[in-house]
Specification:
Chains A, B: One of its GO terms (molecular function) is hydrolase activity, hydrolyzing O-glycosyl compounds. Chains A, B: Belongs to the glycosyl hydrolase 65 family. Chains A, B: This is Maltose phosphorylase. Two copies of one chain form a homodimer. The first copy, chain A, is α+β, with helices and mostly antiparallel strands and about 775 residues long. Among the domains of chain A are: about 280 residues, Beta-galactosidase, Chain A, domain 5 (Distorted Sandwich); about 230 residues, Glycosyltransferase, CATH 1.50.10. Helices cover about 30% and strands about 25% of the residues of chain A. Chain A has 19 helices and 33 strands. In chain A, strands 1, 9, 10, 11, 12, 14, 15, 16, 17 and 20 form a ten-stranded antiparallel sheet that branches. In chain A, helix 4 packs parallel to helix 8 and helix 4 crosses helix 19. Chain A starts with 11 loop residues before the first strand and ends with a strand. Chains A and B meet through strand 22, helix 13 and helix 14 of A and strand 22, helix 13 and helix 14 of B.
Chain lengths: ~775, ~775
C-alpha cells in the first residue's frame, strides 16, 4: 500500500509520528528551497539510521563518466549529475557527553511541519537518551527567498530532567558524496578552510567542471532567550570544519543555537571573492536574526501565493495536495536566472542526471506563465535559446548538417546527458516541444517580439532537423520519419509515430509562417537572422515540400490516427483486464514484452491532441480518447494530468477526476513507492494544469482570447485559482452552481465562458 | 590499410621482422591451443612493450557483474567472462645480470613461425643488449594434443660475443588479471604454492564460480646439448613461484631450458587431487622430453589434416588463409568434451563474454561434421541439450510458460550473458538455429536416433516458444512476430523479420513432423518425452495453427520477401554509392542513422535462403540476392561466407570469389583492424563452407544424398578438400577442367554431380 502518514492540513505538510521507515520519504517531502539552492529535510543532529543526505546548488553539476553496457556511436562521454553539495546544516549534539541520535534513543511527541504558507520547516520532539537524560527539542529552518544564498536554523534544547552540559558542535562538511555516482568517484575537492570567531567557511571546487563554492556558517547562542557567549573549540579536518560549544544547563533551561549558512558559487562571483562573500552573507543573516529572516520569508511567500494559490473547498487532502505541488514548483524554480531550469527532482533528490527535460516546455511553462510575470517563462525559453549552439553540435554528432539542431533529451549545459540509443537518438519529439514552448508563450503573453529577437533561430534549427530527419518513402509516396520513440517510451524505434510526425510538420509550418511575419513586421531582425542562419528562400520551400507531404498512419476501421505504423498488429486488450499482480508492467514484465504489447506509458497521440486541441473536433478527441486511454497504463508521472485535462474537455468528469487523483498526491501518498529518492517536481505542474486547464477549462485561443469551460468534480464544493494573464490578475472561483470572475488590473477583459463572451472589469465580481 | 606483414607460406604463419607495433596482432595470430587449453603467443621472457597476456582453460569462466547504463527487467545479473588463467610460460632471462626485453634491446634476424602442419610455434632472433652482450635465441613451444593438459617450451640461448652468466628464472604467476573486467576485480584467488626440485605448482580458484586449477611447471637444462644440473634458488611471493638458475657460459655456448607446464582443473579432478595431477602431468612430459612431445604433436596434427585439409593450387595466400582457418578451428575445439564449445575468439583473446553463440549451430557444425567423426557434432548438439533447463528458465524470466525454451544469445553454462535488450530479448532467431543444427546433423549423419533420444525435447521447448511469441494480428488476419532483431543487427525491434518468421514456422513444422516419426519408430521414446514434456495432441495442433497461418512480408513490386514489415519505407541506395569515408558505417554513423538506413550488416533474408536453399527456386535466390546483396555492408565477419556460397550457387563466380577473399584472410590481413584483440574463430568455419559448399557446391539433399555442383575461381589452378561423410572419407579435387573424386571407405557412394548421378567406389579415382 501507499504510505499514508502525512496528516491532512490545508497549508502544511505534517508528520506526527517518528518512524525510522519514513525518514527518507519525509526527507524528500519536507524539502525546502528557494530556486537557487535547496535541500532534503535531513536532521541537523547526527542520525545513524537510513538517510539520503542532500543539499543542492542550482547550476552546479558534475560530468560523471558515462556507464554503458555496449557503447554506441553518438553516446555522450559524460553525464551531468545533480551534485550533492557541502553540508552546512549539521550540528552534532551531546547531552552530558552522549550523542543525540534519533535512531538510538526513545522519541516521543514527534512533530514535523513544512509550513507552505510561510516557507519554513519545523520539528519538535521529546527524546530520552539511553543514559536517561530527557530533552525537548524544537527546531525551525528556512532557505531564504529574499537573501537567496542564505539559510537559517534555530535549534532549541530544553533540559527536561537533568542539570548538566549540552554540547553544540555546528560544522561544515565538504567531504560529501553522491549516492548516484557511476564509478564511486569523489566529485569535490576541498581547497581552503577558513576559521573565525563563531564563523567559518570552506572553499571547495568540483572536479572537472571546476565550479568553486564557498560554504559558510555563523553561529550564536541563547540560554532561556538571553544572548550567551560560549567558548569556542575548533576542530579542522581534511574536508571539514567543526566548532564545539559547551553550555552548562540546569533542569528546565532552554539552550538555543542559531546557525546561519550560505552557499556562494563561481556562477555569481570571482573565485577569489567567494570566501568573503560567504562571510558577508552569514554576517547579514546573523544581524537580521532568525526572527526577521522568518518575517521576510513570510512576506516572500505571501507574494508568491497571491498569484499562484488554488483553493479547494470540501476536500482537505486535495487542498493539501495542490498547494504542495505549487509550493515545490516555486521552491525549485523562481524564474529569475535564465541559466537555471526545472530538474525532475528539484532540490529533493539526486536521481536523474541533468536538470532539464522536455517536461519544462510541455508541462512547466504553462504553470509559470499562469502564476508569474511573463519574464519567468521567457527565461525558460532563453535557456534553450542560449543552448542552440550545443543543440546544433549535438545534431552534427548524429550526422545532421547545415545548422540542424537537436535539443538534448536531458541536459544541464546544453550537452546531451542521456545514454540509451532508443531515447537519446530517437526520442526526438522533444525537439518539437521546444517550438511548442515558444508558440505557447507567444499566444499566452502576446510577446511576439520574442520570435524575431530569439525564437526564430531556434525554429530554423529545428525545422532543418525535421527536414533532414524525414525521408521519402517510395512505397507510400509521402515523407516518413523512421526509427523514433514517441512520448510513449513503451514503444521504441517505431516508424511514423503520429505525435512525432505531427510535430515535425507543424514545426516547419510554424517556422515558415513566423519567418513571413518577421519579414513583414521586423525586417531588420529578419535580415539579421536570415544572414546568421545562411537561410535561403529555396530552403524553406524544400522544408514545406516535406511538411506538406508528411505521412500520418490512420486506421479507417477505427477512424483514428495510429500511434505508429504497425500499432494494429498488436493484440489490443484493455489495461483494465491485466491482472493486478502484473502491474506496474514496467516492474513485472521484461522489456521486450512491454514493447510488443499495446500498453501505453503516457499520452502519445493524445499528447498531440492536448497540445493542439483547437485543431481537432470534439468528436475526434472523443474517438481518440476512447481508443487510446483504455490501453494506457499511466506509468509515467506525466500521464494522468494530460488525460485528466482531455477527459474534462470532452465532458467526462468522472474520468477527469479519477486521473486528477492519480497526479495530485503522487508524492504525498507515494503512489510509485519511490518518494524516498525525491519528489516528482515536473509532474506537479501537470497537476496545476489539471485544475486550471482541465476542470477550469482554460485556454488561450489562437487569437489571444481567454476561454473558459469550467466544470467541477462532484467531490468538491468549490475551487478557485488565479491567473496572471498579460499582467492582470484574474481570479476564478467555480462552484457547483456558478463561476465567479474577479479581475485585479487596469483594463477590462473579454472572456469566452462556455461559448459566451463576457466582460470582466477590474475589481468587480462577474458571475456566470 | 590492412596489416600485411605475414609472409605467405603454404603451411606456416611466418613473421620475419620485429616491429613493436605488430606484437599484439602477432600474439593473436600465432596463438596455440588444443581445444582444452590455449594461449596467445606471448613471449616467454619479459616484454615491457604493449602486450595482451592471455592463457585460457576451456570451460573455466568468471561471472562478472553486469554493467549497464539503464537496467531493463530481464537483464542477466552476471556475464560469464572468458578468463585469463595463471601464466605457466614465463621465464625471466638475465644475461650477466641484464634483463632480456625485446622492447629494450636491438633485435635482428627475428623470425617467428607457427607451423600448422605440425602444430608448434617457434621464434628465433639475435638480440644485442644495451650492455653489449649479443645472444642468439631460439624457442619452440607447443600445447600438446595427445597430452591435452600439457604444454612444453624449448628455449635456447647462444652466447654470441661474451662469456659470462645466463640466468633462467622460470615462474608460475597466478596474480593475473583480465583486461576485460567490468569493475577491475581480481578473478582468481591463490590457495596454495607447492615447491619442489625443478618443479612447482600453484593451486588457485576462481572467485564466485570456485573453479579450482593447479598450474604446474617442471624445468631441466642442457648446455651444448648435454644435460646439466643447475642449482635452484626459490622465490615464493603471494601469488607466484619463481626459480632461478644461473649457468656459466663461454662464448659460443648454447644454454637451453626446457619448461613443461600443465593446467588441471576441477572440471576433471577432485580439488584435493589437483596438485598431484599437475605434477604427474609435467613429470610425464619431462620423461617424454621435448622431442618426443613434438613427434606426438606431428602425428596428432597429421591425423587432423588427413580429413580436414584443403589444398589450393595457384594461390599461396589463399592456401595459407584456408589452412590458418582450419588450424585455428581445431585448436579451439576438438569435439571430445560436450561441456565445451567454440568461443568467438577461441583461445586467442578475452573479448566477448561467454563461449557460445548461434555461430556454433549456423556456421561451425558443418565444418566439424565435414572434417571429423559424427560424435564431434553430436557433442555440440548435446551441449545445448544439456542446457535445455536453463533455456526454459531463461524464457520464464521473459514471461513465457509451459516449458517454452529460449536459448541464450551468448552463454557459458546455459545462462544468458548478454545485456542489450534489442539483442538479449529480441534477437530470438537464435532459437531457430538450435533446431537447424539438429536438422543439419541428422541429414548429414543419418543419425535420426539423436532426435528421439535428445533432440525432440529441445524441439518441443523451442516450438512452444514460437507458438507463444507469435500473436494474431487482426488487421493482417495472420500470425505475426513483433519486436525482433534479425541476423542483420543494423535493424532493431522490427516486426515480422522474414528470417525469424520463416524459422519459427519451420521449427514448429519440423517438431510436429519429428514427433510423428518418433511416435511411429521410437514409441518408447515418444511416451517418455511426451510425458516428460507434458505434451498433448491439442497443443501440437495449436502450434500448427500458428505455423500454418504465419505472415511473411512480401513486395509485389520487387517480387521479394521483405526483411521486415516496413523495409520499403527506407531509402534504398546501394552500399557501393556510400563514400569510402563513411565506411564502416558502424564506426562512422550514429546508431539511429544505421538503424533507419537500408544497410544490412550480414545476411538476413539470405541467411534463411542459405539454410533452406532447397526450398527456393534458383530464380527466387537470384532475385533476393540481387535485391539484398547490394544493400549489404558485410560488417560482420559472418557475412561474406554466406554471400559467397549463395553467389556460387547462382553461378556468380566473380562475386563468390570477391566475398570469399573478404572472409579467408580476415585476421591474417587484419581487415577489421582488431586482430590484436584476438582472432574471429567462428567465421573461420564460414570460410571452410565457402569452399566446400560454395565453390565445391556440396549439399546433402533431404533424402540424404551427397550433391556437388563444383566450380572454380579463375584465380586458382585447382583446389581439393576432404569430406567425412557417414564414416567414409571422400576426397574431391576440382580443376579448371574436371573434378576428381576419391573415396576411402568400405562401400560405394552415389553422388549427384551437376545433376548427374555418379558412383564412386572405394580407392578408385572417378573423374567428372
Amino acid at each position: 500500500m501507499n504510505k499514508n502518514y502525512i496528516v491532512p492540513n490545508e497549508w502544511s505538510i505534517v508528520e506526527e509520528v517518528f518512524d525510522t521507515k519514513n525518514v527518507k520519504a519525509s526527507e524528500s517531502l519536507f524539502s525546502i528551497g528557494n530556486g537557487s539552492m535547496g535541500q532534503r529535510a535531513n536532521f541537523e543532529e547526527d542520525y545513524s539510521g537510513e538517510t539520503l543526505q542532500g543539499s543542492y546548488i542550482g547550476g552546479v553539476y558534475y560530468p560523471d563518466k558515462t556507464r554503458v553496457g555496449w557503447w554506441k556511436n553518438g553516446y555522450p562521454e559524460y553525464f551531468a549529475k545533480v551534485l550533492n553539495a557541502p553540508n552546512w546544516i549539521g550540528i552534532h549534539i551531546q547531552i552530558n557527553g552522549t550523542n543525540l541520535d534519533l535512531n538510538l534513543c526513545e522519541v516521543a511527541n514527534f512533530r514535523r511541519e513544512l509550513n507552505m504558507k510561510e516557507g519554513w520547516l519545523s520539528r519538535s520532539f521529546k527524546a530520552t537518551l539511553k543514559t536517561g537524560e530527557q530533552i525537548l527539542v524544537k527546531t525551525k529552518r528556512l532557505i531564504s527567498i529574499e537573501l537567496n544564498e542564505v539559510g537559517a536554523i534555530e535549534y532549541s534544547i530544553t533540559a527536561v530532567n537533568f542539570s548538566g552540559e549540552i554540547t553544540f558542535s555546528p560544522y561544515i562538511d565538504a567531504g560529501i558524496v553522491n549516492e548516484d555516482s557511476n564509478y564511486n568517484e569523489y566529485f569535490w575537492e576541498t581547497l581552503q578552510i577558513v576559521e573565525g570567531e563563531n564563523k567559518g567557511s570552506i572553499l571547495s571546487k568540483t572536479l572537472k567542471t571546476e565550479f568553486h563554492v564557498a560554504t559558510a556558517m555563523n553561529v550564536s547562542f541563547t540560554l532561556n532567550n538571553l544572548k550567551l557567549e560560549v567558548l569556542q573549540e575548533t576542530n579542522i579536518e581534511e574536508k571539514s570544519l567543526t566548532y564545539s560549544y559547551k553550555i552548562d544547563v540546569s533542569q528546565g533551561d532552554v539552550a538555543t543555537i542559531y546557525k546561519y549558512g550560505s552557499y556562494v558559487s563561481s556562477l555569481n562571483y570571482k573565485n577569489n571573492e567567494l570566501i568573503e562573500a560567504s562571510f558577508q552573507n552569514v554576517q547579514t543573516a546573523s544581524e537580521l536574526r532568525f526572527e526577521d529572516l522568518l518575517n521576510l520569508q513570510k512576506q516572500s511567500w505571501a507574494t508568491i501565493w497571491r498569484t499562484a494559490d488554488i483553493v479547494i473547498e470540501g476536500d482537505i487532502k486535495a487542498q493539501q495536495g495542490i498547494r504542495f505541488n505549487i509550493f515545490q514548483l516555486n521552491q525549485t524554480y523562481m524564474g529569475t536566472d535564465a541559466r537555471l531550469n526545472i530538474g525532475p527532482k528539484g532540490f529533493t533528490g539526486e536521481k536523474y542526471g541533468g536538470s532539464t527535460y522536455w517536461d519544462t516546455e510541455a508541462y512547466c511553462i504553462p504553470f509559470y506563465m499562469g502564476t508569474k510575470d511573463a519574464q519567468v517563462a521567457k527565461n525558460l525559453l532563453l535557456y534553450r535559446y542560449n543552448q542552440l549552439d550545443k543543440a546544433i553540435e549535438n545534431a552534427q554528432k548524429l550526422g545532421f548538417t547545415n545548422g540542424a539542431a537537436l535539443y538534448p533529451m536531458v541536459t544541464m549545459n546544453g550537452e546531451e546527458c542521456h545514454n540509451e540509443w532508443e531515447i537519446t537518438f530517437e526520442e526526438i519529439h522533444r525537439n518539437g516541444a521546444m517550438i511548442y514552448g515558444i508558440y505557447n508563450y507567444v499566444n499566452y503573453t502576446n510577446d511576439f517580439e520574442y520570435i524575431p529577437k530569439f525564437g526564430l533561430e531556434v525554429m530554423i534549427g529545428v525545422a532543418r532537423f525535421w527536414y533532414q530527419r524525414a525521408n521519402f518513402s517510395a512505397v507510400k509516396n509521402q515523407y516518413v520519419i523512421l526509427g523514433v520513440t514517441g512520448p510513449n517510451e513503451y514503444e521504441n524505434n517505431v516508424n511514423n509515430n503520429f505525435y512525432t510526425n505531427y510535430l515535425a510538420k507543424w514545426c516547419i509550418e510554424y517556422a515558415v509562417e513566423s519567418l513571413q511575419k518577421v519579414k513583414n513586421e521586423y525586417p531588420e531582425d529578419y535580415s539579421r537572422v536570415f544572414a546568421k542562419a545562411s537561410l535561403t528562400e529555396t530552403e524553406t520551400k524544400e522544408w514545406l515540400q516535406v511538411a506538406n507531404n508528411m505521412y500520418f498512419p490512420f486506421s479507417e476501421k477505427h477512424n483514428v490516427y495510429l500511434q505508429q505504423d504497425d500499432f494494429l498488429d498488436k493484440e489490443l486488450i484493455p489495461a483494465a483486464e491485466l491482472s493486478k499482480k502484473e502491474r506496474p508492467i514496467n516492474q513485472k514484465w521484461s522489456w521486450d514484452r512491454i514493447l510488443r504489447s499495446c500498453y501505453i506509458k503516457q499520452a502519445d497521440v493524445l499528447q498531440g491532441m492536448f497540445f493542439f486541441e483547437d485543431k481537432f473536433t470534439k468528436q475526434e478527441l472523443e474517438r481518440h480518447f476512447d481508443f487510446y486511454e483504455p490501453l494506457t497504463v499511466h506509468e509515467s508521472s506525466l500521464s494522468p494530468c494530460v488525460h485528466s485535462i482531455l477527459a474534462a474537455s470532452i465532458d467526462r468528469m468522472p474520468k477527469a477526476y479519477e486521473q486528477y487523483v492519480r497526479t495530485a498526491r503522487l508524492d504525498l501518498d507515494d503512489y510509485n513507492h519511490e518518494v524516498d529518492e525525491g519528489c516528482h517536481i515536473t509532474s506537479m505542474a501537470g497537476t496545476w494544469m489539471s485544475i486550471v486547464q482541465g476542470f477550469g477549462g482554460m485556454r488561450v485561443s489562437e487569437d489571444g482570447k481567454l476561454v473558459f469551460n469550467p466544470q467541477i468534480p462532484k467531490q468538491w464544493k468549490s475551487y478557485s485559482f488565479t491567473i496572471n494573464f498579460r499582467n492582470q490578475i484574474l481570479k476564478i472561483k467555480v462552484n457547483q452552481a456558478k463561476t465567479i470572475f474577479e479581475l485585479e488590473g487596469t483594463h477590462e477583459l473579454q472572456i469566452k465562458v462556455n461559448n459566451k463572451t463576457i466582460i470582466v472589469t477590474p475589481n468587480n465580481l462577474v458571475t456566470v
